[in-house]
């Protein structure tokens, strides 16, 4: 059976969508929405977030979730990395304040540790590295679903007032903007699922356009509040260094920790790529709801980490793809057979 490997940009890739995000930040810096324009942009951003989570719910296949339950050890491992190990490392980063990170940047650094894992890039990298692709699909899906519930709860518990002030009203906004659209998508999936499948490419542009709108609104608010007067080049460099250390620790823990737990090569690859990455697509809308006017600083660490993880994992995936095939059975792989790549 021939393998069709997803193509990624060349070495040290700069994701075109990251370029679009950077362009959106530049636009918000030069032409921020203010006054009545800010109100319109804020309303459109709220609607975009609700639409995103409705589409997330409508896309999720119940059959895929049930099939993935048979590999529960791997999924629990990924969930533990995403929602236990990452937050613990984020809390350890408190020691960087105020000498390395400002309190505002640390809030964003901690928030990125709370968001769920990616789906698309985890699958692509797992496929390139000849890992367990079905497990990566299910693990990423489970993480995204769990994040809808766990990320707001963890943010409320760990960020406190730094997260924009959590109150009954804030929790109600989370339910209305995130949970209800997601549940509505699940309930209506039998009627809208076919339409979404047929127009997947077009709706993908809707996804990305909605996130760009969220970024523009957040950074417009930040410009009005004087965000770039709060972040110096030295602080940005320190933030990049802290995130590089965080990514290196998670890549090492997921790879060697999975080996100690008895997982084989294919499963270890899925665990490493699903357990060490964070979702920009899920994190940005959540930040806009959780942080309000402070969202601009909160999403900056996540945006930087997202590009860093793509660049580093692209190199790792290509190196893993050159591993001898015999290593896929090293130490008794948990997967009964090699993952097919479609």
Write the layout of secondary structure elements.
Layout: H1 16-30, H2 36-59, H3 62-68, H4 72-92, H5 103-112, H6 120-128, H7 133-158, H8 168-187, H9 189-198, H10 200-224, H11 233-260, H12 265-275, H13 280-291, H14 295-321
Helix pairs in contact: 1-10, 2-8, 2-9, 2-10, 2-13, 3-7, 4-7, 4-11, 4-12, 5-14, 6-7, 6-12, 6-14, 7-12, 10-13, 10-14, 11-12, 11-14, 13-14
Give me a quick take on this structure.
The protein has 14 helices and no strands. The protein has 342 residues and is mainly alpha-helical. The chain is globular, with a radius of gyration of 20 Å.
How would you describe the overall organization of this protein?
By secondary structure, this protein is mainly alpha-helical. 72% of the residues lie in helices and 0% in strands. It is built from 14 helices and no strands. The protein has helices spanning 16-30, 36-59, 62-68, 72-92, 103-112, 120-128, 133-158, 168-187, 189-198, 200-224, 233-260, 265-275, 280-291, 295-321. The protein is globular and about 60 Å long. The N and C termini lie close together (10 Å). Residues 1-6, 8-12 and 326-342 have low confidence and may be disordered.
């Amino acid at each position: 059976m021939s393998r069709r490997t997803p193509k990624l940009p060349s070495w040290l890739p700069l994701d075109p969508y990251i370029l679009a995000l950077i362009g959106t930040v530049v636009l918000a810096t030069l032409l921020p929405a203010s006054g009545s324009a800010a109100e319109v942009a804020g309303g459109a951003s709220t609607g975009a977030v609700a639409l995103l989570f409705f589409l997330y719910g409508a896309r999720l296949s119940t059959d895929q979730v049930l099939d993935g339950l048979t590999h529960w050890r791997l999924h629990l491992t990924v969930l533990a990395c995403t929602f236990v190990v990452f937050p613990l490392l984020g809390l350890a980063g408190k020691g960087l304040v105020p000498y390395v990170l400002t309190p505002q940047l640390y809030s964003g650094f901690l928030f990125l540790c709370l968001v769920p894992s990616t789906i698309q890039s985890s699958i692509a990298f797992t496929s390139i590295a000849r890992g367990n692709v079905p497990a990566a699909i299910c693990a990423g899906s489970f993480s995204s679903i769990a994040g809808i519930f766990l990320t707001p709860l963890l943010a409320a518990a760990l960020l406190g007032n730094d997260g924009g002030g959590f109150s009954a009203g804030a929790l109600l906004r989370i339910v209305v903007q995130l949970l209800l659209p997601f549940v509505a998508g699940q309930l209506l999936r039998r009627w809208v699922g076919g339409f979404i499948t047929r127009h997947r490419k077009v709706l993908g542009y809707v996804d990305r356009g909605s996130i760009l709108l969220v970024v523009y609104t957040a950074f417009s608010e930040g410009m009005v509040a004087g965000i770039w007067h709060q972040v110096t080049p030295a602080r940005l460099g320190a933030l990049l260094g802290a995130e590089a250390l965080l990514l290196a620790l998670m890549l090492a823990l997921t790879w060697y920790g999975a080996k100690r737990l008895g997982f084989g090569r294919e499963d270890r690859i899925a665990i490493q790529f699903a357990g060490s990455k964070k979702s920009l697509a899920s994190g940005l809308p959540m930040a806009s709801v959780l942080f309000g006017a402070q969202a601009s600083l909160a999403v900056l660490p996540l945006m930087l980490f997202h590009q860093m993880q793509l660049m580093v994992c692209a190199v790792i995936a290509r190196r893993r793809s050159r591993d001898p095939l015999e290593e896929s059975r090293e130490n008794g792989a948990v997967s009964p057979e090699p993952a097919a790549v479609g």
